[in-house]
């Protein structure tokens, strides 16, 4: 703006800052005589003197100046320091009084409705391509203007503002608005967490440069300072160059407590490949041939398998280095189990649209204790239920009963050299189908078997995670770190490490032999409702009630991905067996699919009508099963969902995702239960699908 420039030059000349004046003039290519010729406009004089205009200096500065300051554009100022009574308070510290006092700049309370409806009118009358993008402003501005009115004790104005405009907000913000409507006095704001989150974390909007320029011009022409202040202070506008996004593209990505994720948040490199399997020889047994020999036929020669363990000879280029995080050594029993696993895998059914899995449903009958968690061992031999009466119950699903180890006195009598020592140490008198574990003092919300089936984890409302031995069926350790309910816990696929997440908004990484957590993953703005390890154990995914999913690096505790798009709290997570994709389910009844490497949403599966509590990929990743509170299990074609993905650089850079219109093409089957919400799903090693839930008599 030429006039502003001239004014600045004159100011520099008056202050005898010749050198600066020269530099600026050279930059702007202005010659000496231009300077005197251009008259100094009153607005820019006020802008420089800070006293020449009647309005307060901040507002005068806004008239033209904000556009000129390069740092202020696009919210690229990371922390806005608001100067309050001489002290500078940096916005990022959630110190309650400091955070709230940022609401001190008062506009005329009676004009708030006018400001908002003026902006609304402007946005609704703008071109279609800009309207969708600028409509994202409605919700954060509505909240901040309402809170500003409440903070400055204009209660009646706040009430009428809320009533007039809350109906215009998107339906997925209903729950947040309900909380907001209960904040009607300044005192209410002090202890309210939702409120504080909204204030301390900048709401992120992703807008194209054209739409942003349009908005800026409008606000500056209208001198609409109240709204511009909020945009500058409380919103982070992530500007991209290119076409504005369509309504569908925006709707797919928004809806979380703090808006979308910044594009920077999903740029870090993620090693999503699988670790190389250790190699060992597999002894061939003749079980398979016995049947044929009875009729005197010659034995079929089996092709000689050179150590089956070497199926992944080549290192996956996207895999993390083998020693990136220390993983436990394989014990002999683990190797034996791997061999069993490979034999089972050889008999595995190849699933696909033409060959759907059979589903075996375990219904918990008369579960008056209230079933709150289920897990099934990898080899499908045991099932565990966590209950609201604070018990953990373990069942054997095979004819083999559950037995405890003998007492110390009896163990001393055993010949330790005998071949069947592992059988002898078990006490036959204790054999039963069900074992009940007592120890928690509140509902048990999460359970997880260790991969070697020796241990079981459970987490509870009492704030603890407990580690149980499945040899003695007793509690070995209680891990205390969370001070509030712990909603979920899960063992690493390699054992030893486990993760827990709870009401205190953080996830913690533990090792079974440490009392204290090894890592604390903080960043979510609400409860961490579910946790999952990546198949290579280097990353952990957490889903939260703030409607986002985050991926954390176990090595350094950094958050490497933030996925937004769900419209309700996340309740289920599943990684694809190849480690490239993540499926997430929430209370909004949608399953979203994410490409981890590119940090993009690549699919949306619609069909469920209630919260999705269970997600699982089949063993080879061809099928995704989802289980919901709507009493159905649905099967989706995962191969089709992930083929032909458009992940070019432009899409990655701007988030122009193109989801297929109809997810019904991917739905392979829907299976109803009579009246049993589905709480857990599990594919056996041969791809039989096991489901579990408690019958509820409505």
From TrEMBL:
Keyword list, A-Z: Nucleus, Repeat, Transcription, Transcription regulation, WD repeat
A GO cellular-component term linked to this record: transcription factor TFIID complex
WD repeat boundaries on the chain: 364-405, 437-472, 479-510, 521-562, 563-596, 605-637
InterPro entries according to UniProt: LisH (IPR006594), TFIID_NTD2 (IPR007582), TFIID_NTD2_sf (IPR037264), WD40/YVTN_repeat-like_dom_sf (IPR015943), WD40_PAC1 (IPR020472), WD40_repeat_CS (IPR019775), WD40_repeat_dom_sf (IPR036322), WD40_rpt (IPR001680)
Record field: compositional bias (Acidic residues): 282-293
GO biological process, one term: transcription initiation at RNA polymerase II promoter
Main location: nucleus
SMART domains referenced in this protein's UniProt entry, alphabetically: WD40
Protein name: Transcription initiation factor TFIID subunit 5
Origin species: Grallaria varia
Top-level taxonomy: Eukaryota, Metazoa, Chordata, Craniata, Vertebrata
